[in-house]
Give the backbone structure.
Amino acid sequence: MGDNFVNNIIVDYTSYCGGKYKHYPTLSELQRLVQEIIKSELTSDYIKITPFYVNSKLDQQVEFDDYMFYMECREQYNETELTNHFSACIGKEYNAMNDEEIEKVHLLFPLCKYDDKEAFKKRLEEYLGYLDGLLPKLLDYCKHTIGLTDVDVAFGYFCFEIHSG
């Protein structure tokens, strides 16, 4: 099973006043959080990270559930369980997915084994790397959907909702 220590690290980064209030880490805070988790050399039952963009000038928020990262750790799993997991996460049979969907589902919804700390670390690092290319695309999406101007962008930021168990 996963370790509560990882959950405690996440709680430390995502709440304050004894858990009374939630904090949604920025990208740099997420990067530090992931490095802290990696340094612990432990795993967790699951980690779920959902990006969103907040703009205080426009008083708007855009959540990106389609780019949620969800890594689950199990005692063991086989190839069939893995493809079933991917199908359930994306809502489409694995065999019917195109190459882009397969790449995305492997990146955003990985499974790992509790005792495979290297795979756990690698998946977290891959997600952080993925964000480097994703966030500019999400910002473009925000510009078009909520009408952000170049000036408005200065009043916004990306942050992340993080859960673990």
The helical segments are 4-14, 27-40, 79-90, 99-108, 117-145, 150-153. The two ends are 10 Å apart (CA to CA).
